[in-house]
């Protein structure tokens, strides 16, 4: 056993003297969750890992944009179900000093629908009191806005 | 566990909507239908979770296009073989199949990803009012129309028509009806 | 490191610790150091000056000292959930060792890994999670569809009617001027 | 181009190897290390995993200090010999006696007359289960006795108690002969600790220990699922009859996609025109059954939105009256024997589901 180990240690290394297996281990550690030969074969693996590393450079900002857009879609949907336009809803919350940020609003819309409903009712009442005319009297999903609708002259 | 299963079933349930496309602009109505097909009207929306709803569109025959788009709006087709490209104008396509105009505009509005075909299968198009019962039974709510339905000329009473201010009157023997264009052999082939 | 390859986990508590009573999760700590080497100097100073204060302050933690010749100095902490954490303290001054010991003591023993969400709840909703019918009235049950007139665009005065109105008004003014 | 150069290089090196078999090892050990590691890894696989060793076999282990800090860690300052007694099992004593007999020393002088922890475990178990029952009856005053029993059975079940024991560091300190430990030994040791607490510090302290360690395991668990009610609608009719209220009538609140596979039904149960419970379901029957369960939850105040259990600091000056008795579901059902009931029983009412328009849909 000792002899074979001695021979194995001194086998020639093609890459100019340093041991390539450490580098392969590092790439393998980055590709444990890939599919098929991308997980096992180094020459295929290296392309996908470097693509993944490139993607991770701009994934930070892409993540933020995605969740911001998702948040607005969800809140627009929730507001329109109660007949309130999303922009007017946010303005009402600001003017009434209701300091709930958008992520919490989204959680309320999904997990505490009655609380969100009362926020929307407050917004409708506020629009009525301050004669805020909702420009189009229908939300993007077709629900009637129950704020004040300016009669077409 | 049964409780959580049932609550999850209700939250992700697919509801059926109905939309009356009579005298509605085909682009605006497509935009609104596409939102419902994607499920963007739900606070639990996520592009990966396929929670779109079914939409039953009735009166697609009555769809409307602005100005003279019936003549100018062209649909391109291609059979995939060499020289297989063909162009059809809207009126001809509408005469061949009265649901196609709505279907194509919704298909164009939906995001072009793998879910689009699946969402299109949840779009049920009917040329007029009668919808089979098992589909109508599923419908739980209706989507509001997109454009104001204009008051048709037939709906004006004779007195209102007379009271309408006029500059001059047509001579009696003048034929009001547009000249019917000559019957096209091509269409006859399809319509048979 | 791309996001997918970094291990991640959800927030978890050991045995709802802290709700009934807080139990220090570190049950045992071992100081391994060498008597001669100078990179264990920090650990040796720590043992001389701070170790007794630590043991008096925290009787719930068993402390072991393991001198090993020519080995790098290390702190190994064992936790109640069966995991153990080690920190290499070579060339570390005694103050830093105190801080690391404090870090080890106040941990829950779980692996420090990227958290998918920094909060956890077993019943997220008290008013009932949203479902497509929460904001709808039960009268929907009886409604017959397609019910066309209540889903039209809210009717407004059309332009032809407004023109007719203006025309009528002008004619009246003319008549009143004449008379 | 580069491939050809590299292949050329390989040939050159290979010729170099053949001449001196015994090469002067180069100073940097990195060259063959990964190959060595791979060989070691392969041999490790053939040998198999490390055998489980008892923690006491390692060098950094001192039983007395471990036992001392175990007490201190939980905030109970019991003296050492009672703590050691808690961890001493009968099997350990018998094994030691056998060993001594083999060595031929008289048994009396071996100092093994210390008794084991069975007696403590029995009293600890008794105290813990009583206290859990009393606490649950006071925490859920309107809940049925059977429900309370099912929660108690869950809490005092072997895997929950064993999990608690494992996470308090008990298994390493146990003196008994079987290794790896059986779950029952860990549970008896935990109970023995409670018994010791009761013996040394009194009942109050032992109750506090149970309230701080066993009861928090209820957090996040759905207590209604622990008691399997086979016919919730029947039980609901019995309860409403017992409370002299109108019999439950299931009504369809909403219905979606009913002619497809993905149908959803929301059924609400009314008694005297008041909505007492509602639930969704894949079919009308499932929805009705779940609505009955929901109604029962609201009647017994064990629904998800109930106030949290009073534990830890909140329960400092908690007064629990021992004598509290909860109504038993069996008595209610016996009172409401089927002979008396004229109204349609639960099964009939399903077919009589009316599409009712009840604007009050918020419970």
Automatic annotation (TrEMBL), chain A:
UniProt key word Lyase: no
Q: List the Pfam families.
A: Ribosomal_L20
Keywords from the named record: Ribonucleoprotein, Ribosomal protein
Family annotation (Gene3D superfamilies): Ribosomal protein L20
For molecular function, the Gene Ontology terms on record are: rRNA binding; structural constituent of ribosome
Q: Which GO terms describe its biological process?
A: translation
Q: Does the keyword Repeat apply?
A: no
Stored InterPro entries: Ribosomal_bL20, Ribosomal_protein_bL20_C
Q: What would be one Gene Ontology cellular-component term for the protein?
A: ribonucleoprotein complex
Protein family membership: Belongs to the bacterial ribosomal protein bL20 family.
Q: What is this protein called?
A: 39S ribosomal protein L20, mitochondrial
Q: Origin organism of this chain? A: Lottia gigantea
TrEMBL record, chain B:
Where are the coiled-coil regions? Answer: none
- SUPFAM superfamilies hit by this protein: Ribosomal protein L13
User: Might you name a Gene Ontology BP term for this protein?
Assistant: negative regulation of translation
Lineage summary: Eukaryota, Metazoa, Spiralia, Lophotrochozoa, Mollusca
Family assignment from sequence similarity: Belongs to the universal ribosomal protein uL13 family.
Does Cell cycle show up as a keyword for this record?
Answer: no
According to its record, what are the GO cellular component terms? Answer: mitochondrial large ribosomal subunit
Q: Which organism is it from?
A: Lottia gigantea
- A Pfam short name: Ribosomal_L13
One GO term in the molecular function aspect is:
structural constituent of ribosome
Q: What is this protein called?
A: 39S ribosomal protein L13, mitochondrial
Q: Which UniProt keywords apply?
A: Ribonucleoprotein, Ribosomal protein
From TrEMBL, chain C:
**Keyword vocabulary terms for this entry:** Mitochondrion, Ribonucleoprotein, Ribosomal protein
Cellular localization per UniProt: Mitochondrion
Instruction: Tell me yes or no: is Mitochondrion among this UniProt entry's keywords.
Output: yes
Ranges where the Ribosomal protein/NADH dehydrogenase domain occurs: 35-108
**Would you tell me the Gene Ontology cellular component terms?**
mitochondrial large ribosomal subunit
The record ties this protein, via Pfam families, to: L51_S25_CI-B8
Q: Does the keyword Ribonucleoprotein apply?
A: yes
List GO molecular-function terms, semicolon-separated: structural constituent of ribosome
Q: Which SMART domains match?
A: L51_S25_CI-B8
Q: What InterPro entries would the database entry show?
A: Ribosomal_mL43 (IPR039927), Ribosomal_mL43/mS25/NADH_DH (IPR007741), Thioredoxin-like_sf (IPR036249)
Q: Name one GO biological process term.
A: mitochondrial translation
Q: Which SUPFAM superfamilies match?
A: Thioredoxin-like
Q: What family is this protein classified in?
A: Belongs to the mitochondrion-specific ribosomal protein mL43 family.
PANTHER family, per database record: 39S RIBOSOMAL PROTEIN L43 (PTHR21396), LARGE RIBOSOMAL SUBUNIT PROTEIN ML43 (PTHR21396:SF2)
Q: What is this protein called?
A: Large ribosomal subunit protein mL43
What species was this sequence derived from? Lottia gigantea
UniProtKB/TrEMBL annotation, chain D:
> Gene3D superfamilies recorded for this chain?
3.30.160.20, Ribonuclease III domain
Q: Which InterPro entries match?
A: Ribosomal_mL44_DSRM_metazoa, RM44_endonuclase, RNase_III_dom, RNase_III_sf
Q: Does the keyword RNA-binding apply?
A: yes
Instruction: Say where the protein is mainly found.
Output: mitochondrion
**Protein's UniProt keywords contain Secreted:** no
Tell me one GO molecular function of this protein: ribonuclease III activity
**Pfam families attached to this UniProt entry:** DSRM_MRPL44 (PF22892), RM44_endonuclase (PF22935)
Any one cellular component term from GO for this entry? microprocessor complex
Family statement drawn from the similarity comment of this UniProt entry: Belongs to the ribonuclease III family. Mitochondrion-specific ribosomal protein mL44 subfamily.
This protein is called Large ribosomal subunit protein mL44
């Amino acid at each position: 056993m000792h002899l074979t180990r001695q021979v194995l240690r001194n086998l020639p290394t093609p890459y100019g003297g340093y041991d390539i297996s450490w580098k392969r281990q590092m790439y393998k550690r980055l590709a444990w969750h890939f599919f098929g030969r991308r997980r096992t074969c180094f020459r295929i693996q290296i392309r996908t890992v470097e693509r993944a590393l490139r993607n991770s450079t701009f994934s930070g900002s892409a993540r933020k944009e995605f969740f911001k857009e998702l948040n607005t879609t969800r809140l627009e949907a929730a507001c329109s179900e109660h007949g309130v336009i999303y922009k007017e809803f946010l303005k009402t919350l600001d003017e009434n000093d209701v300091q709930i940020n958008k992520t919490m609003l989204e959680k309320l819309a999904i997990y505490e629908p009655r609380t969100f409903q009362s926020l929307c009712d407050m917004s409708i009442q506020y629009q009525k009191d301050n004669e805020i005319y909702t420009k189009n009297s229908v939300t993007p999903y077709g629900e009637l806005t129950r704020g004040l609708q300016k009669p077409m002259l | 566990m049964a409780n959580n299963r049932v609550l999850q079933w209700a939250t992700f349930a697919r509801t059926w909507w109905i939309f009356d496309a009579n005298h509605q602009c085909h682009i605006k109505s497509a935009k609104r239908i596409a939102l419902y097909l994607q499920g963007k009207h739900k606070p639990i929306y996520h592009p990966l979770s396929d929670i779109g709803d079914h939409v039953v569109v009735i009166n697609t025959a009555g769809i409307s296009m602005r100005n003279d788009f019936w003549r100018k709006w062209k649909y391109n087709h291609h059979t995939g073989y060499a020289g297989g490209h063909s162009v059809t104008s809207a009126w001809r396509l509408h005469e061949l199949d009265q649901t196609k105009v709505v279907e194509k505009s919704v298909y164009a509005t939906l995001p072009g990803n793998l879910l689009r075909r699946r969402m299109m299968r949840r779009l049920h198009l009917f040329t007029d009012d009668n919808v089979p019962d098992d589909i109508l039974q599923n419908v739980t709510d209706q989507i509001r129309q997109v454009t104001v339905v204009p008051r048709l000329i037939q709906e004006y009473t004779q007195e209102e028509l007379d009271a309408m201010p006029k500059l001059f009157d047509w001579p009696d023997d003048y034929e009001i009806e547009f000249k019917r264009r000559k019957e096209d052999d091509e269409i006859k082939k399809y319509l048979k | 490191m791309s996001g997918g390859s970094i291990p991640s986990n959800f927030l978890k508590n050991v045995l709802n610790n802290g709700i009934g009573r807080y139990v220090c999760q570190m049950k045992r700590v071992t100081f391994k150091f060498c008597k001669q080497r100078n990179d264990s100097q920090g650990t040796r100073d720590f043992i001389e000056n701070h170790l007794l204060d630590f043991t008096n302050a925290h009787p719930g933690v068993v402390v072991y000292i393991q001198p090993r010749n020519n080995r790098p100095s290390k702190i190994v902490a064992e936790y109640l959930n069966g995991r153990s954490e080690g920190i290499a303290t070579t060339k570390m001054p005694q103050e830093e060792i105190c801080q690391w010991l404090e870090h080890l003591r106040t941990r829950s023993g779980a692996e420090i890994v990227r958290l998918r969400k920094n909060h956890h709840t077993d019943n997220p909703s008290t008013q009932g999670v949203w479902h497509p019918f929460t904001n709808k009235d039960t009268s929907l049950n009886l409604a017959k569809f397609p019910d066309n007139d209540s889903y039209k665009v809210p009717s407004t005065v059309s332009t032809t009617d407004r023109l007719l109105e203006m025309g009528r008004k002008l004619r009246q003014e003319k008549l009143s001027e004449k008379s | 181009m580069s491939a050809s150069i590299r292949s050329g290089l390989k040939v050159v090196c290979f010729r170099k190897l053949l001449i001196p078999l015994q090469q002067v090892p180069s100073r940097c050990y990195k060259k063959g290390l990964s190959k060595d590691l791979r060989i070691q890894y392969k041999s490790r696989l053939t040998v198999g995993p490390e055998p489980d060793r008892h923690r006491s076999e390692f060098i950094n282990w001192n039983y007395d200090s471990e036992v001392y800090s175990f007490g201190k860690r939980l905030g109970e300052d019991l003296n050492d010999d009672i703590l050691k007694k808690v961890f001493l099992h009968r099997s350990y004593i018998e094994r030691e006696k056998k060993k001594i007999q083999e060595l031929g020393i008289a048994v009396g002088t071996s100092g093994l007359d210390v008794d084991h922890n069975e007696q403590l475990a029995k009293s600890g178990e008794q105290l813990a289960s009583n206290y859990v029952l009393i606490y649950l009856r006071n925490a859920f005053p309107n809940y049925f006795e059977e429900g309370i029993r099912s929660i108690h059975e869950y809490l005092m079940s072997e895997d929950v108690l064993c999990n608690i024991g494992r996470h308090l560091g008990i298994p390493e300190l146990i003196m008994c002969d079987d290794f790896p430990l059986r779950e029952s030994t860990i549970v008896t040791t935990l109970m023995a600790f409670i018994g010791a607490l009761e013996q040394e510090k009194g009942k109050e302290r032992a109750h506090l220990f149970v309230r701080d360690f066993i009861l928090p395991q209820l957090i996040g668990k759905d207590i209604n699922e622990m008691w399997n009610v086979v016919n919730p609608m029947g039980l609901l009719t019995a309860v409403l009859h017992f409370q002299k209220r109108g019999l439950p009538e299931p009504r369809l609140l909403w219905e979606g996609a009913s002619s497809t596979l993905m149908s959803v039904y929301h059924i609400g149960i009314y008694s005297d025109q008041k909505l007492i419970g509602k639930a969704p379901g894949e079919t009308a029957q499932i929805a009705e059954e779940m609505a009955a369960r929901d109604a029962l939850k609201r009647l017994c105040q064990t629904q998800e939105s109930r106030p949290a259990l009073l534990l830890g600091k909140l329960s400092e000056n908690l007064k629990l009256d021992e004598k509290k008795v909860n109504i038993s579901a069996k008595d209610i059902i016996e009172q409401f024997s089927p002979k008396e009931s004229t109204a349609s029983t639960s099964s009939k009412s399903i077919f009589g589901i009316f599409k009712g328009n009840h604007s009050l849909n918020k419970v």
